[in-house]
Amino acid sequence: MSGRIHIDHFTTLDGVAQAPGGPDEDTDSEFAFGGWQAPLLDDTVGAQVDAGIQAMDALLLGRRTYDIFAAYWPHQLDGPAAGIARTFDSIPKYVASRGSPELGWRDSHLLGRDLARELTALRKRHREIHVIGSIDFARTLVADGLFDQLNLWVYPIVVGAGKRLFPDDGPPMALELLGAEPASEKGAVLLRYGPTGSVPATGDMSREDLDT
Fold first, then answer.
1. Is residue 194 part of a domain?
2. Does the residue 202 lie in any domain?
3. What's the per-residue H, E or C state across 140-192?
4. pLDDT at position 170, please?
5. pLDDT of the residue at 211
6. Which H, E and C letters describe 80-111, residue by residue?
7. Where does residue 162 fall: left (phi above 0), alpha (psi -120 to 50 degrees), or beta otherwise?
């Protein structure tokens, strides 16, 4: 059976996924709310995230997120987050980049330019591959239909301008709900979606002959 590619994203209610972890994570366009997720973390979300991490056997990242992870997680192998750090350290890391970066983190590999071909090879090699953060790269995967499951943690805050997984210029697509997990004590909801391969359908609610 072919492996599956998951995209894991933390997002505000208005769809912003930029810099959830800290003020300096991504300051593009003078983003003012870096670290918006930090005050809203709780044990429910922590358990959901940990379950996903323990299930993966490969990590797929954009260059910027890789640099953030590589600067942090290898130094946490004996700390409070050692379980996550050791999982990340033990599995292969694949990086999408337009350049030729040096990848110093153990078992890290640069993907080739033919993304669809590279991901086909990864699906044959791995059972469950996760993309964490990496918003620009994740946009490409979504736009090209190169994913199997979208895991969205939606938080009850609105921040206005910021990077979104689904930009205003599309592309349009229909998704199917695969599951929804109860809100955490601080209001986050985990929604799991899969692509249908189709665009949204339209209709006319004023028609009298609509099925009831």
1. no
2. no
3. HHHHCCCCCEEEEEEECCCCCCCCECCCCCCCCCCEEEEEEECCCCCCCEEEE
4. 80
5. 61
6. CCHHHHHHHHHCCEEEECCCCCCCCCCCEEEC
7. left
Listed as ranges, residues in the chain with pLDDT below 70 are 1, 208-212
What are 173's two structure tokens? 């697509």
Measured distance CA(27)–CA(210) in Å, rounded: 48
Residue 206 within a domain: no
CATH number at residue 89: 3.40.430.10
Q: What is the pLDDT of residue 184?
A: 84
Q: Which two tokens stand for residue 47?
A: 């358990």
With left for phi above 0 and alpha for psi between -120 and 50, is residue 133 left, alpha or beta? left
Please state, in angstroms and rounded to a whole number, the distance separating the CA atoms of residues 210 and 207. 6
